[in-house]
Amino acid sequence: MQLLQHYFKTLNPTVSIIIPCYNQAKFLAETVQSALNSTYSALEIIIVNDGSTDNSEEIAEELTEKHSNIYLLNQKNAGVAVARNAGIEFSKSKYILPLDGDDLISKEYLEEAINFLEKKPQVKVVYCEAVKFDENGERPWNLKPFSLNALARDNMIFVSAVFRRADALAVGSFSEGMKMGREDWEFWIKMLKNGGEVVKLPFIGFFYRIHSGSKRKKTGTSQKKKERIAYLNENHREFFERELNGPLRIQRTWSKPYNSLMKFLGLLS
Question: Which residue has the higher pLDDT, 269 or 17?
Fold first, then answer.
């Protein structure tokens, strides 16, 4: 991996925005600009080029030349979890915001999130309302309310939430073996299953881009779902036992009643 020298010319950043990028040259400059537009100025942007075969690296290099608080890491293609972890490791900031190379954030999102985290040490994760968008416009992203029990069945926190770097490192950051998608879901389980509050800010601060190359579309197959559930059960057995009375099932919303019935019938220990 090639690293640019890590020093700060004009600021001492409090938050690092980690942008993994794989063949997202078409969107990268817009994503970076949304971060630069933040009302919170004590930030750095770390672009992790994950072995792109388009001109993502060239665009990223141009951005580093224009802005002293943008850094570029280049790595062989290894997946988004490895890329995010590389950025977290490289960062020296107190807070982290992952932001994929085709998504956007609002101007006020970082400032409001960090204010919450600074005032309330018991809060581990801050996120916000969000929309999905494409060339045809925006539509609301109706995220379910957070609770640990709900998190055991589904993810309601998109990856672009703000959290402390120390908390991420304490749980091993993103699991690099989880290559079947929704690695952010597993990351929140790791971070929150043993405690910590979550705050959802009451405004739209995140914009999730939908397009033909969106990872969410590629990891929505039945096979990927089965692999994902098997991975979660293997690595978080005690969490699911506590919240769902047994393992997470393919029909996730029915996991707890099904497990409870199976235990009542003596078919699940």
Answer: 17
